[in-house]
C-alpha cells in the first residue's frame, strides 16, 4: 500500500514505533524504494528493548524506595505502605516522565515532517507513542486515518479479549479493580476507565497507574474501551462484519469505510496467475489444483497461556485427527512459532509446513480450513471456504459474548480433538465437489484503491493537493 502512495506521486514518510528483529529489515526495504523512514527512539517505542528499559526503571524505583525506607524509624511506615498497596504510587513519577518524553518526541516528529495526513493502525494503548502521535496531529490540525490490522474492532472485542488474556495468564492481575486499595480508589474516581467482562469481573484495561499518568499528560484514549479511537477522520474496515462491530458501539457510520484489508490485494491478484499458482503448489509439494486441508496451528505455549506439555499433547491429538481425514495437510505457523520446533511433523505425519507463503496466500486454494479461534478465520467467509474451529480452551462455549465474537457463520465447532475428524468428514460430504478447489475471484475495487481514493478526496475537499 505504501508503494501505491509513492506510485501516485505522494511524498511518503514511514514511522516505525517498535524495536525487534523485524525493524531494520522493514526500514531497509523502505530505503531501497526511496521512502523516508524513521524509527522512534528506543525509550519511546514498543519492543524488547523498551521492556528492558522499563524493567531497569522499575528496579530504580525499588532501589529508591528501599533507600528511603531502610531507616529503622521507617520500618513501621514501610510495612503499612506495603500492606496498603501504596508502594505502587512511587512508580507514578516514572510513568509521567515516560509519557512526557513520548509527547515531546511525537511533537518533534510531526513538526519536522509537516504531513498533510497521517495513517495509523487501530492502536489501543494508554500513554504510548501512538497516543502521542495522535495528540500531536490534533494539536497541529493534521487529519488521521485508521487502517486496522485486524477485523476485530469495538468494545466487544476488547472485553472478550481481555477476559481471554486474564484466563490465559497473558494479562497481569493488577488490572482487576479489586486488586488493591489503589485500584479500588481509582475505579471509584474514574468508573469510565473500567468495564465489566463477560464473566462479571470489573477491570481496567491497563495498569491504572499507567492510565493515570496518561490522563495527566494528555495521552489517553478518546473512549478507553473502544478500538479504534474516535479521533480518526475515517477507519477503513475489513468487512461488513467489522463495520457491524463498530456500529453496535455507536461509532459514527459516516466515518466507517468498508475497504477490505490491503493485505489481500496481492492475494486476490494472484488468483488465476498460472505461474504464481504453480510456484505455490510446488512449495507445498502438491500437484496444481490438488485439494488440501489448511491447518492453522494454535500458538498456545508460544503465547504463554498453556504449558508446553499440554500444548504438545493437544497438538498431537489434533494432528492425528486432521491427517486421518485422508486429504493432504498444509500447516500454517504463527510468527511466534519457531520453525525448527515443528519440523518433526513433516516426517512423523507426512504433512507440509508452509514457510514461503502466509495463511492469507493459502486460503483461496484450500479445500477445508481447520483452525483455533483466530482472526484469520474470517478469511473463510471472504474466500467461501468450509471451516472447522477446534476450541481446546473452551472460548466459544464460555459465554454468549465470546460466542458472538469468535463464531463464524457456517463453521463447525470441535470442542475436543476427537470431534475434528467427524466435522471434516461432514464438510466433505456437504461439498458438491469435495476434490475441487473453489476459488473466489476479485470483485469490486482493491482495498488500497478505496483507501487512497478516500483520503485523496478528503484532502481535495480541504484544499490540499
Brief description of this entry?
This protein is of the alpha/beta class and 465 residues long. It is 44% helix and 11% strand.
SSE map:
Blueprint: H1 2-7, E1 13-16, E2 18-19, H2 23-32, E3 36-39, E4 46-47, H3 48-68, H4 75-84, H5 92-113, E5 118-120, H6 129-139, E6 144-146, H7 154-167, H8 181-189, E7 194-196, E8 202-204, H9 208-216, E9 234-237, H10 240-247, E10 256-258, H11 263-270, H12 274-283, E11 293-296, H13 308-324, E12 329-332, H14 339-342, H15 344-349, E13 352-353, H16 359-362, E14 368-371, H17 379-382, E15 387-390, H18 400-406, E16 412-414, H19 420-430, H20 447-461
Parallel strand pairs: 1-3, 2-4, 5-6, 6-9, 9-10, 11-12, 11-14, 12-13, 14-15, 15-16
Antiparallel strand pairs: 7-8
Helix pairs in contact: 5-6, 5-9, 7-10
Write up what this structure looks like.
The protein is of the alpha/beta class. It is built from 20 helices and 16 strands. The strands form five sheets. The protein has a six-stranded parallel sheet with strand order 13-12-11-14-15-16, covered by helices on one side. A four-stranded parallel sheet has the order 5-6-9-10, covered by helices on one side. Helix 5 packs across helix 6 and helix 7 (154-167) crosses helix 10. It is globular and about 65 Å long.
| Subunit arrangement of the protein | single chain
Q: Proportion of β residues?
A: 5-15%
Largest sheet: 6 strands, parallel
Strand order of the largest sheet: 13-12-11-14-15-16
Low-confidence stretches are 49-69, 433-443
What's the Cα radius of gyration? Answer: 24 Å
Going by helix content, strand content and strand pairing, the class is alpha/beta
Cα-to-Cα separation, first versus last residue: 19 Å
Query: What is the share of helical residues?
Result: 40-55%
Instruction: Give the overall silhouette.
Output: globular
- By DSSP (H or I, 4+ residues per run), the number of helices equals 20
Query: What's the average pLDDT?
Result: 87
